[in-house]
Amino acid sequence: MNTLHRFLTPSPAVPAASVWYLSDLGEAKGTQELGTRQSPQRLKALREHALIESAVSSNRIEGTKGTAPASALSSSAEPFCGSATRRRSEAT
């Protein structure tokens, strides 16, 4: 019986700022899904690169020294990580 009373009482107003934030979140999610569908190969390469960088950083924090396996240095991630690094170093 209490459930029906909820429908009879007016619902509280949602602040306009909250509505704007929710619409911005919906828009961002839409663009994220679009990018995921349009370039899965690029995302795969970026994911692999992030995994390698994470392992290297973790090893650096722990003080572990070693070399990366040859499979970790795949050429698929090269265009995404090398070009930006070169541009930053050349600019300075």
Largest sheet: none
Average pLDDT reading: 74
Please mark out the parts with pLDDT under 50 across 5 or more consecutive residues, or reply none: 75-92
Strand coverage percent: under 5%
Q: Helix amount, in percent?
A: over 70%
* C-alpha end-to-end distance: 71 Å
Radius of gyration of CA atoms, rounded to a whole number: 24 Å
Per DSSP, the total helix count is: 4
So what's the overall shape?
Answer: elongated
Q: Which structural class fits the helix and strand makeup?
A: mainly alpha
Total strands: the figure is 0
Helix and strand string, N-terminal first?
Answer: HHHH
What does this structure look like?
- The chain has four helices and no strands.
- It is elongated.
- It has a domain at 41-65 and 72-92.
- With 92 residues, it is an all-alpha fold.
- Residues 75-92 have low confidence and may be disordered.
- The relative contact order is 0.07.
List keywords for this structure.
0% strand, single chain, mainly alpha, elongated
Summarize the entry for a quick read:
This protein is mainly alpha-helical. 73% of the residues lie in helices and 0% in strands.
